[in-house]
Structures are given as C-alpha cells and as structure tokens.
Amino acid sequence: MDFLVKLAEGFIGMFQAGGEQFMGLVTGIIPLLVVLITFINALIHLIGEERINRLAEKSTKNIILRYTLFPVLAVFFLTNPMAYTFGKFLPEKQKPAFYDSAVSFVHPITGLFPHANPAELFVYMGIAAGITELGLSLGPLAVRYFIVGIIVILIRGIVTERLTLRMMNKKNTEVESQAS
C-alpha cells in the first residue's frame, strides 16, 4: 500500500514541480521577453527597415563580417527562425554558409539576449541553474558563450563557404564534361 501512495505522490509531485517551473517562467522570463521583443521591433521601426537592409548588404562584402557581424545582427534583430531570411542579401554560393553561421549562433546569443531564441532558454537556464547554485554570476558565462559563439560561427561560415564552392565547382565541371 505504501508503494502505491508513494507512486501517486511522486506522479502528482512531478506535475507540481512542472507547474512551479511554469509559474517561474510566467513571472520571470516571459515578461522580459515581451519587453525585449517590443524594444527590438521599436528599434527596427526607429532606424528604418531600409537602413537595416543597407547595413546588411554592406556587412556581407567582407568574409569576416559576413560570418560574424551579419549573423549576429540577423539573430539579434530578427530572432530565430526569421534570422535566416537575411540570406536574401547573399549570392547563392554564400547562402549555405550564412545559414550554418546563423543557426550555430542561436544558442550562444541566448545568455545576453534571450529574445533572440526563447526556445533555447531551457538549455541555457539548465546550465545557468548549476552556475547559480555554485554561487557564481551568470554574466561571465553569457559573455563567454557569446564570444565563443562568434568564433565558432566565423570558422563554420568560412569552412562551409569553401566546401560549397568546391561542390559547386565540381558540379559545374561534371555538367560541362557531360555536355561535351
């Protein structure tokens, strides 16, 4: 009989813990996200969509900016998954590398700018809970994630762009060989 009581208490306890977690989100992170998203949308309206488009076009001319600044701006302003639409400013041969960079940055940006990808908060907050339990500050962790994220997206962007160019050149060579 004790086994059934403990099983029932454990079962309902799991839902109670889930409810407490949900209430923590409702009173903590959700209002923050609403305010951040509102701020970003207001900033885009104040700056002007055309200016943001021009900045995007200029920042893609340099390979380092193309795979650092450009994905950071895309993820920050448009958030996940809309950030990938910034690829429209790139030629076809650079789109796969941009996507690789942008998709690789949606987690590292979360610690500093949670509005960019709220779905990733569960991962970050899980890690953050352990850091907080140790009595450490989350700020240095968030900054390190951000910096390492930028380094990783640069490497991934450059490597993916080179692989894409090789595959496109190989395909073009094969098509030319078959035409002869």
From TrEMBL:
The keyword Transmembrane helix applies. Keywords: Membrane, Transmembrane, Transmembrane helix. InterPro entries: PTS_IID_sorb. The chain crosses the membrane at residues 22-44, 64-84, 142-159. Pfam families: EII-GUT. The keyword Transmembrane helix applies. One of its GO terms (biological process) is phosphoenolpyruvate-dependent sugar phosphotransferase system. One of its GO terms (cellular component) is membrane. This is PTS sorbitol transporter subunit IIC. It comes from Virgibacillus oceani.
